[in-house]
Amino acid sequence: MEFIPAPKKGFVPVRFIEGVLSRYSGKELLVGYGDKKPLVRRKLILFLRKIVATAKQNRLKNLDINWKDLRALASKDVSDLALGKLAGEAFVMADYEHVAYKEKPREGFSFIETIAVRNTPEEVKRGGFWVGEQIALEVNECRSLSNMPGGDMTPKILAAAAKKAVKGTKAKIKVLGRKEMTKLGMGAVLGIAKGSSEEPQFIVMEYWGAAKKDKPVVLIGKGVTFDTGGLQVKPGDSMLGMHMDMSGGAAVIHAVALAAKLKVKANVVGLIPAVENSPSGEAVRPGDILKSLSGKTIEILHTDAEGRVILADALTYSKRYNPQVVVDVATLTGAALVALGTQASGLMSNNQKFEDLLRQLGEESGDYVWPMPLWEEYDAMVKGTFGDVPNISTDGNSRDGGVIAGGKFLEVFAKDIGCPWAHLDIAPRMTANQNEFLAKGAAGTPVRLLFALVEYYAKAN
Ligand code: BES
Ligand code: MN
Ligand code: ZN
């Protein structure tokens, strides 16, 4: 998709109309914005995507939109630059579809070719549309990685994808294999990886865009390339979709790549422990005790609670960077989906200000997050019996408060880092829902939020 300043012959004018219905008259594309103007940010994002989704349904290729119409529709709280950015993001995200495994239909795929946005102020073209487009292209790359079937997305392939994502930028990348991890003592990652014939990889990305002395933002992403559940194999239908269990890792890869491509003046480190969680004669067993990089032992009480275990080593590894803040991103629990539905990721932090910041940036970026408590009262969830920390709650019914149990486990390992830390349980937002005008499959969350966070620290520097 390309943005140009003026329409050419054959471009279809887009008109915004009251009501929810949308249609193509043969001359114009009429898109309903609802029954109330102006549109606040949340509504605006959806409406902007709806324009492209409707155009695609009608197999239109070239659209003619008037900036003044957009401006008149959007709330005054949204600045010109912000509106341009939101539009760039929304148009490009709504155009994406996962077609890598599909034969091209005779009439071609229904992607948009060009959008002309007439009367766009000069500063909005580059500072708004262009930036939004770059962000969305990276979000879409993240979605492509997540959408890749488990058979085609192994830890090694994920590591190769990370290298490709930062190619040509200043970002550096290093990948630790089984040998290096053994030397370091990363028993948590290695333990979960044991059941699979795929070698685990620990992907380390560094982008130094500010002075070396400035503490980096460390982003950690769960990279389980397929989650069978391990020996406690997932039942029935619940394994389908688990090729996306590396979505946190994919988001971190592309957030780092985006910061490097846009030359943001901040230091960013991305850490992605990548494993396949498989059952086999060598797989980790319930009751096994793993020695983590921190020195603490982890009691495996359930082989399907693997994400937190590999993240433990990554949290400990982050300490060597003396980070400004650490955020981990993981499709950690089905319980998060039960609690929040498909609209927001779970947010847990050991620092109130940092939690507030992430909530605000989530709201602005469109990657919505919602807080859950990590009160001391929940400490009993992570009391080990024969090891230091159990990987599922040992306080009563292990299903109760499943999201918080995940957060509490990670908090134990985050404590030692000595900086604000937050955990995003993105399981609720792993796939796009029916009402957000995005193609089926991975939602690409929270690339936009992580990038906003990196930009926030660039400005603070
Ligand atoms: N990857 C899953 C969580 C998940 C489930 C993500 C559905 C997205 C959609 C995770 O590794 C897992 O299996 N969690 C268990 C934890 C339980 C054993 C404590 C779960 O949610 O059932
Ligand atoms: Mn699991
Ligand atoms: Zn998992």
Automatic annotation (TrEMBL):
Compartments in which it is found: Cytoplasm
Gene Ontology biological process terms in this record: proteolysis
InterPro entries the record matches: Leucine_aapep/pepB, Macro_dom-like, Peptidase_M17_C, Peptidase_M17_leu_NH2_pept
One GO location term (cellular component): cytoplasm
Binding residue positions for Mn(2+) 2: 222, 227, 245, 306
Catalyzed chemical reaction(s): Release of an N-terminal amino acid, Xaa-|-Yaa-, in which Xaa is preferably Leu, but may be other amino acids including Pro although not Arg or Lys, and Yaa may be Pro. Amino acid amides and methyl esters are also readily hydrolyzed, but rates on arylamides are exceedingly low; Release of an N-terminal amino acid, preferentially leucine, but not glutamic or aspartic acids
Cofactor: record remark: Binds 2 manganese ions per subunit.
Residues that bind Mn(2+) 1: 227, 304, 306
GO molecular function terms attached to this record: manganese ion binding; metalloaminopeptidase activity
Pfam families recorded: Peptidase_M17
E.C. number(s) listed in UniProt: 3.4.11.1, 3.4.11.10
Cofactor(s) this protein requires: Mn(2+)
Family statement: Belongs to the peptidase M17 family.
Protein name per its UniProtKB record: Probable cytosol aminopeptidase
Organism of provenance: Candidatus Adlerbacteria bacterium RIFCSPLOWO2_01_FULL_51_16
Gene that this polypeptide is encoded by: pepA
